[in-house]
Amino acid sequence: MNARLDHRNPLVFDTHELGRRPGALQRLTRSVPAPKDFGVADVIGIPEGNPVELSLRLESVMEGVLVSGTARATAEGECVRCLEPLSRKVEADIQELFSYHDADDRGRPKAEPGDDAEDDDDRLFIEDGLFDLEPVLRDAVVLALPMQPLCTEDCAGLCPECGVRLADEPGHHHDAVDPRWAALQGLAETVKDGEKDSIEYTDGATPGAADEKQEK
Ligand SMILES: [Zn+2]
Ligand SMILES: [Zn+2]
Fold first, then answer.
1. Residue 107 and residue 130: Cα distance in Å, rounded?
2. What is the mean pLDDT of residues 98-113?
3. I need a surface site. Which of 53, 61, 165, 166 has the fewest CB within 10 A?
C-alpha cells in the first residue's frame, strides 16, 4: 500500500515500545517540522519547517494502535478582506486507528467482500511496527484552519475605490466623485446645456467639447 516507512522521518512513530498487549498506553510529545503544503493553498497554512507540537496518546487495542491527541502550530496567511498578513495559533485534534495487517480476522465483524475492499482503502496500517502520522496530521490541521481568515472579526476590508485599507484610515471616504472628474463633469454639463457662453476654451485642451458645442 505504501513505501516502506522510514523511522528517521519525524512523523513516523514506532510502536514497538508500546507493544501489542491491549490496554497498553504510551504518551509522548514531539515537535516536528511542518511538511510541505500544510494548509489551504494561497489562503493560510503552516509554513514548511515551522514547528508543530504534538501531544499524543498511543493506546494498544486488539486490531492496532489508537492514536489520539493534539497538534499545535502557528499558521500564517492573509486576511481575505484586506490582504494583511496574519498569523493564527491552531490546535488540531487527532484521533485515528492504525491497524495491524494481520488483525483483519480478529474480532472484526465479517463484512461483505465488496465492503471490505472499500474499507481497506480508507484504513491506515502499521508497517513493521511503524506508522506514518503525516496524512492524519495534515487532514486534522487543514480542518482546524479558518477557511476565511480575517485580521479582525470586523475587518472593514479595502476601499473599493482606491484600495486603501480602511482600518488604517478611520473615516476614510471619497466625495461622491473625484475632484478631477467633477471638474470635467461640470464642464460637460456646461457644454451640454449650450447656453453658457462665459466659458472660454483658450488653450485648445478641450477641442472635443468645443466641437460638441458647435454641433448642437
Ligand atoms: Zn483584514
Ligand atoms: Zn478610498
1. 22
2. 64
3. 53
Residues, Cβ < 5 Å to ion ligand 1: 79, 81-82, 151, 155
Range of the domain at 97: 12-144
| pLDDT attached to residue 41 | 86
> Is 170 among the domain residues?
no
Is 168 within the bounds of a domain? no
Residues 43, 46, 47: CA angle, nearest 5 degrees: 95
State the pTM of this model: 0.70
In a domain, 87, yes or no: yes
205 belongs to a structural domain: no
Q: Which long-range contacts (CB under 8 A, 24 or more apart) does 178-185 make?
A: none
Spacing, Cα 19 to ligand 1 middle (Å) = 50
For the chain, the domain total comes to 1
Report CA(28)–ligand 2 centroid distance (Å): 53
